[in-house]
């Protein structure tokens, strides 16, 4: 049986589990480096991500420090300049720019959360690995111009210029499809946004609560250490059997000091950051759901504009003095209004279909990872409690 006072095993977090699952490889020919498991799919498949701190000034890092990430990847996609990327260096701000650019270009997709700068190097490396694996595993994101520039740029990543908006055909407004007034679709996304908002609120609340718990354990650890030191000081002045009992109690308090110190570090540096990752995931989902609401609002406004143009034509029709130039102008305005309405309607339809699939996949993944992380947190706390119980038993 393991010693209860031994350090707790590292938790298998969502970041660890997803990274381990994504890093499975085929057996390569003798002497060759193994390609990533989904290499054949054409995405830049990540085989290695590591990071270290850099104290040089980095644009966007308020404290003048940050992380440098080293990436190894392979691909057979034709959009990338190279087939294998070895020791590709990227700074933390480049990962954040990559994330923000993907969010702006793919509002219908729930972009994986990027790593937080507050993580320690080991956790940041795992989070960066998970972020890149999930982005490159997404069939739309991995084929984007943003992904190509991220891997092929020889300088700091800079978002590519926005692509020109797609224009619908002249007859697009005649398509008989309506989504803006579809109550079942809107109810689905209303519930989805409420769930994502509740998820974000719970995750951020857990981070704040864990931060308080970590500080409380840290304060308790200091107090226990002070009490233990005082018992040991008294034991040095005693020469009777009482001195042995004093040292025994002092050792107990010093052991409890170490346990609570380890628990404080684990809570602050591990558990709080893991739930912070869930918070960032929820924020990414909310961003996509809000983008759909914005597009729905634009479509609603376009419908109102079309109605105004129809009313203008009705007024001209009822007029006794009809001028041909005004009629032609009104018809052109109506045609343009219907074209814009049809274009927005088609865009909203496509966005709703994609986002619904994205959100269903997102909720399934997050439910699984949240259950795993909660279970890991409980397991770690039980391990610390066993350390405390063992120390108390030995002191009897």
List the helices and strands and how they pair.
Blueprint: H1 14-22, E1 45-54, E2 66-74, E3 84-91, H2 92-105, H3 121-136, H4 145-152, H5 183-237, H6 241-318, H7 324-395
Antiparallel strand pairs: 1-2, 2-3
Give the class from helix and strand content and strand pairing. Answer: mainly alpha
How do the strands of the widest beta sheet line up side by side?
Answer: 1-2-3
How many helices? The count is: 7
Distance between the termini: 21 Å
Explain the overall architecture.
The radius of gyration is 30 Å and the shape is elongated. 32% of the residues are buried. 64% of the residues lie in helices and 7% in strands. The longest helix is centred in the C-terminal third of the chain and has 78 residues, at 241-318. A three-stranded antiparallel beta sheet has the order 1-2-3. The protein contains seven helices and three strands, in the order H-E-E-E-H-H-H-H-H-H. With 396 residues, the protein is mainly α. It starts with 13 loop residues before the first helix and ends with a helix.
Features:
396 residues, three-stranded antiparallel sheet, elongated, disordered N terminus
Summary, kept brief:
With about 400 residues, the chain is mainly alpha-helical.
């Amino acid at each position: 049986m393991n010693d209860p006072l031994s350090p707790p095993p590292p938790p298998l977090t969502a970041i660890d589990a997803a990274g381990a699952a994504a890093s499975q490889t085929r057996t390569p020919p003798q002497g060759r480096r193994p390609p990533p498991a989904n290499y054949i799919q054409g995405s830049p498949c990540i085989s290695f991500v590591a990071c270290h701190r850099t104290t040089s000034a980095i644009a966007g890092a308020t404290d003048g420090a940050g992380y440098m990430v080293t990436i190894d990847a392979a691909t057979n996609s034709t959009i990338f300049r190279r087939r294998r990327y070895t020791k590709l260096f990227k700074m933390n701000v480049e990962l954040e720019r990559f994330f923000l650019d993907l969010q702006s270009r793919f509002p219908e997709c729930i972009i994986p959360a990027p790593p937080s700068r507050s993580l320690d190097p080991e956790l940041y490396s795992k989070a960066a690995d998970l972020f890149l694996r999930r982005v490159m595993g997404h069939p739309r994101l991995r084929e984007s111009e943003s992904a190509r520039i991220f891997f092929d740029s020889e300088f700091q990543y800079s978002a590519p210029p926005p692509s020109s908006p797609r224009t619908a055909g002249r007859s697009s407004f005649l398509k008989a499809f309506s989504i803006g007034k579809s109550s079942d679709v809107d109810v689905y996304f209303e519930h989805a946004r409420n769930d994502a908002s509740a998820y974000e609120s719970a995750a951020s609340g857990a981070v704040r609560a864990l931060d308080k718990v970590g500080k409380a354990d840290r304060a308790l650890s200091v107090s226990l250490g002070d009490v233990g030191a005082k018992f040991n000081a008294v034991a040095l002045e005693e020469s009777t059997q009482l001195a042995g009992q004093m040292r025994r109690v002092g050792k107990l308090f010093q052991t409890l000091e170490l346990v609570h110190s380890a628990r404080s570090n684990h809570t602050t540096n591990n558990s709080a950051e893991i739930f912070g990752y869930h918070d960032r995931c929820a924020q990414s989902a909310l961003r996509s759901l809000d983008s759909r609401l914005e597009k729905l609002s634009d479509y609603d406004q376009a419908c109102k504009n079309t109605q105004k143009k129809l009313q203008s034509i009705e007024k001209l029709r009822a007029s006794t003095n009809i001028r041909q130039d005004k009629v032609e102008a009104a018809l052109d305005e109506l045609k343009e209004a219907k074209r814009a309405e049809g274009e927005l309607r088609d865009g909203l339809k496509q966005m709703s279909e994609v986002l619904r699939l994205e959100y269903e996949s997102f909720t399934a993944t997050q439910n699984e990872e949240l259950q795993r992380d909660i279970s890991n947190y409980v397991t770690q706390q039980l391990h610390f409690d066993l350390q405390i119980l063992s120390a108390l038993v030995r002191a009897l």
